Amino acid sequence: MLRKKIFQQYESKTNRGTELYRIEALSDAVFAFSVSLLIMSLEVPKTFEELQSSIHHFLPFVATVSLVFFFWYLQNEYFRNYGLNDGFVIFLNLSLLVLILFYAFPLKFLFAVLLSWLTGFDYFHEVTVLGKTVLTQEEFPQLILFFSIGYAVIWFIFYLLYLHAYRNKSKLKFSLYETKYVRSQKQDAMVQMGIGLLSILFAWMNLPIWSGFCFLLIPLWLLIHNYLFKRTVKRIGQLK
């Protein structure tokens, strides 16, 4: 478990998240249902050409499922680390599930568009043979805006979840390291949300390229965030 890897010998003696709440069971079912919908969207190939097409469609499928499971992992880690199950947490989790279900198919569309540009493969052959346009240059800023809003809102939900856990640190009997960790999670969620908001601003200004570049800040921020947290943990260890 990530929490054990982070805290190691400094881990809190208080056990949390040992009970599986009904909201967690519902969340697991919704995440699984989202993946099932994506799987059912894949048709059984009838020719070798269709098989090749299915293989190419595997990339946007994997990208979409990976992102869905990433948010599932964050949500699962939250319950394991903090074990909170009050009305506020339930409301935020339901909001998160609604967004995951709503964005599942559009997210696959976005990854297919991006991979089409990167690889040159036509992921929309069924549409293009009919003479239809998949995405116009004028529609691209709207597409980026749509997903930037979703990205910002999802991280805003996680920020509220981490903030709620931090406000309950006395009740949960956080160790010093756990207090620093939940602060770090709050900071991460806030910056991730800020990246989404910056992308929204550029998309609204009809600068989709700059809007897309905003998401390239994510890996840079993750490296900075990881470095800052390790430095914090090292400082706390020196106080022992």
Report on this model:
With 240 residues, the chain is mainly α. It is built from ten helices and no strands. The chain has helices at 2-7, 22-40, 48-82, 87-119, 125-128, 140-167, 169-172, 176-204, 208-214, 217-239. The protein is globular, with a radius of gyration of 21 Å.
Strand content: under 5%
User: What structural class do you assign from the helix and strand content?
Assistant: mainly alpha
Radius of gyration: 21 Å
- How far is the first residue's CA from the last residue's CA? 24 Å
* Average pLDDT level: 82
Q: Which blocks of ≥5 consecutive residues have pLDDT under 50?
A: 1-13
Largest sheet: none
Percent range for helical residues? Answer: over 70%
What would a concise description of this structure say?
It is built from ten helices and no strands. The chain has helices at 2-7, 22-40, 48-82, 87-119, 125-128, 140-167, 169-172, 176-204, 208-214, 217-239.
